[in-house]
Every structure is written in structure tokens, then in C-alpha cells.
Model the fold of this input.
Amino acid sequence: MMFLDRLNGSLRRITSDKVNIKRYMVLFQRLNMYLIGGALAIPFIVYNVFDDEYIKKRNAAIFFSNSIKAQYESKRELYDYRGDPMPDYDKYYKAQAPRYYDDIAFIGITTLGTLLPWLFIIFARPGAPVQVNRDKQLIYTWHRGKLYAARLDQLQPKFPASMGGLEFAGGWGPLVLHLYRAGKVYNDKNELGKGKKFKIGLYVPTIDWENKFVYEFIEKFLNNDVSLSDDYQSRKGWLEYAPRNPKELPSDEILDKAIDEWIAQEK
Done:
């Protein structure tokens, strides 16, 4: 099969009859978060490291209690000169504190906005892979504690040229498949339902229209026209390097039970 060696970023051999395909969306979103996070981090660093006026204002807002205390004490000499008693500190504090609220809100919002993309990169996990099972003649994944599956003729594949319009070339979109919960494949009129859309494949792909080649592989693999060799080496894309690993399919015992239930309720 053409480009089989180029699909090693999307495919992972499990057994001779099982192949996992990566989920696309978190990888796509992670790249966006790198771009957004980088764009936000540059002005954040400039202001917080090099802008003395902003740093002074920031520190005054963060440590506003100290600032109010310093202001209060600065008035003591004047009051002593006049022979007047100092105003009550608690009342003075309550009167002055609201002056800092806008600055505190601005600093908090800009800091949180700058951190959010990086928090997504750190904590977001790609969903469990989509598995192609030649023995069962099924394509399935695990999502929120439930099995979603389909046979080849139930997938309703889509091949979008892009995902979000950020790509520099055509054909970087995911392979979109419709998978179904048990008993939800057909409606009351025995018509194929829409199912839940799952986007799979590598982002950034190594070849244009990789989604079409991934689907071609699924077809040929299920029809026993192609297999992955025992020494087939999967490749990890740079967007996959993150503190949290992708979710996994459940144990074989749980998965096999769910598959049997799905097959029993297919019609």
C-alpha cells in the first residue's frame, strides 16, 4: 500500500488483527494553544520584566495592603504637626482598598488569560484511540465510559480539507468517522443514524490528504489486503510530547464484554 510507512504517525500496531489510530482534535487544539500562548506570553513577559512603571503598578496592586499601610503612615507626620489624632486605620483601609480593585482585576485576568493556553497544553489529554479490529470486523473507541463502534459500511467517512482554516496546505484535515453506541446504529425506520463524530489521524500530517490514506488503510486492513509487520515502528509527533499521556482503551475483559453487547444490539 502506498505511503504505509508514512502513516506511522497515525497508526500503531497492537496485534496482527488490531491497529490503533490516534485521535486528532487535542493535537490540533494543542498547536493552536501553542500559537495563542506564545502570542500572549510575549507582551506579558515584556510588561512584567522590562516595564518599570507597570511593575510598580503591579506590585502596588498585588501588595495593596502594604501600599495602604505605607500611605497611612506617611500622613502621621502631618497629623502630628497639626496636633490632630490619626484617623481610624480600619476605616481608612476600607476607604482606600476599592482604588486597587480595578488594577487587581486587570492583572488577574491578563495573568489567567496568559496561563490558560499553557494549562490546556499541560492537562488536556487526547481521547482513547480508535481501534480497528479485523477479527471482529469493527472500528471502535471508548468515550466517557461507553463503547462507540461501527462496521466499515456504517462509518459515513468525511475528508475535510482543513480544520479551522489555519493550515498552510490543503488536505491537513482529520478523517471523520461516525461511531455508535450499542443499539443506536439504526433508527426506528431501520435507517442508518448519524452517530457520534470522531476525528482521527495525526496532526500535523506527514502527507497531504493523509485522512484519505488512513481510511484506505482501514478498508484494506479489514478486508485482509494489508497488514502491519511485527516490526512496524510507530512515530510520535512533536505535539504529542506533553506531561499527560493519551487516554487508553479499557481492559480486554471490559472491552470484549462491551463489544459483545454492541453486536447483540446492532440490529
Q: What stands out?
A: The radius of gyration is 29 Å.
